[in-house]
From TrEMBL:
Residues 65-87 are annotated as: Disordered. One of its GO terms (cellular component) is nucleus. Gene3D superfamilies: Phosphorylase Kinase, domain 1, Transferase(Phosphotransferase) domain 1. This is Protein kinase domain-containing protein. It comes from Polypedilum vanderplanki.
Length: 438
């Protein structure tokens, strides 16, 4: 039973069945892309919210004046929701991803044998409701309609997991880049980067920052269509979506792809943080490894300086106003910008070097945006972007995901060690062979 305090000497009770009914109704509306608050007047919302404890956090975020501390959970509340019949519609085939959020599976629909992906998110019943990031992810995916953004097929709750059913893609870019046997022509790299820029242009036009761009979150279908995925950290920005300025968290984006303004504590950043990540990813298309691999935020800033020159008001006007700039001792010497110099040996295309250099601008105001990037000479000079990557990716027999390739590599490593041990017993010397292969 849920006990809801409305005043100091007054309480109202709502049965757990009623709460469950409202929670399911809200989840159903999310599935259908409907905002349940849209049809309510502000005065009615406060009354309505008391019957929706599961979604209190999400709604209080939209309406910060609503009280958030008047819900208490009764010890009699059922600890686990009932199973969902929706789960029986899908058959699990293979785990293809894992993280702190939960797991991702390749699944098959029992109705039409369609292959899909199921993202299972761990969720504990709590008074403040579903995590706000999950609510945002579902809403954003329901609202997007672009060929380069993953499509949401279904959403449901099963026991203590929320399941997002998505279209299936055969690879992620991290898995592809980790396989040295898969190489790309300049026109093929250009095609993939153009598709990624197209996805970014679309979400940025709709005021959405992805906030977690990295190769593992870029999927590729068997037909060679790139799909941007994992909107768990995504956020709509602007006065319409933010209750107050300077309120964005800086704890976003995987460290190696994190823009310098985030590392310096800027809480009013823009879509430019995604473009920095794209600059790192674009360089990785040639290097086949992350170019800025810091072990900590301070070390990451040092690497940024080493690549992009001094972080100072001369190269980045206004940086001195950022929270952490004064607390960190940046080099006083004249550190030159070395982006083009360091990549010239592997990136032979001068226009590609120029675009990467523009994407990795320290000053976010000088960083090229997705619209201008799509009009950059790189995409309009020979060789032109490959129009069809289907033939390229149909030749790749296995699926390549970062999670699977890491497991595959460890398994092959173990088997190779066993083989070498057996050879040693027979007097065969294989010193150094293992390191050459792996």
């Amino acid at each position: 039973m849920v006990i809801i305090s409305t005043q100091k000497h007054q309480t109202a009770t709502v049965s757990s069945k009623m709460s469950e009914y409202h929670n399911k109704a809200h989840l159903k509306r999310l599935q259908n892309g409907v905002n349940i608050n849209r049809h309510l007047q502000p005065a009615q919302r406060q009354n309505k919210i008391s019957n929706l404890p599961q979604f209190r956090q999400a709604l209080a975020h939209e309406h910060p004046n609503l009280p958030r501390d008047n819900i208490k959970l009764s010890p009699n509340m059922p600890p686990t929701p009932p199973p969902s019949p929706e789960m029986s519609k899908y058959e699990r085939i293979l785990k293809i991803g894992q993280g702190t959020f939960g797991e991702v599976y390749k699944v098959k629909s029992k109705y039409d044998n369609q292959i899909l992906a199921m993202k299972s998110i761990k969720y504990k019943e709590r008074a403040e409701g579903l995590p706000i990031n999950l609510v945002r992810e579902i809403k954003i995916l329901k609202q997007t309609d672009n060929k380069n953004i993953i499509k949401l097929v279904d959403v449901f709750q099963h026991f203590n997991n929320i399941h997002l059913v998505l279209e299936f893609c055969h690879h992620d870019l991290a898995g592809i880049l980790s396989n040295q046997r898969i190489s790309f022509k300049p026109s093929e790299i250009k095609s993939l980067m153009k598709q990624l820029m197209n996805a970014l242009f679309y979400i940025h036009f709709h005021n959405v920052i992805h906030r977690d761009l990295k190769p593992a979150n870029i999927l590729i279908t068997k037909s060679g269509v790139l799909k941007l995925t994992d909107f768990g950290l995504a956020r709509q920005v602007g006065s319409k979506y933010q209750s107050k300025p300077n309120s964005l968290t800086t704890r976003v984006v995987t460290l190696w792809y994190r823009a310098p303004e985030l590392l310096l504590g800027d809480r009013s950043y823009s879509t430019a943080i995604d473009l920095w990540s794209v600059g790192c990813i674009m360089a990785e298309m040639w290097t086949r490894h992350a170019i800025m691999k810091g072990e900590s935020e301070v070390k990451q800033l040092e690497i940024c300086e080493n690549w992009c020159g001094n972080i100072c008001p001369q190269s980045w006007p206004g940086v001195e106003k950022l929270e952490l700039f004064q607390k960190l001792n940046f080099s006083k010497g004249d550190q030159k910008r070395k982006v083009k110099e360091r990549l010239r040996a592997v990136v032979k295309d001068s226009a590609a070097l120029e675009l990467i250099d523009n994407l990795l601008s320290l000053d976010p105001k000088n960083r090229i945006d997705a619209d201008n990037a799509l009009n950059h000479d790189y995409f309009w000079s020979d060789p032109m972007p490959c129009e069809d990557l289907k033939e390229k990716f149909e030749k790749i027999s296995d699926s390549h995901f970062e999670f699977l390739d890491e497991a595959r590599r460890k398994r092959e490593e173990f088997e190779m060690r066993k083989l070498l041990e057996s050879k040693k017993k027979n007097g065969v010397n294989y010193n150094g062979y293992f390191d050459r292969v792996y």
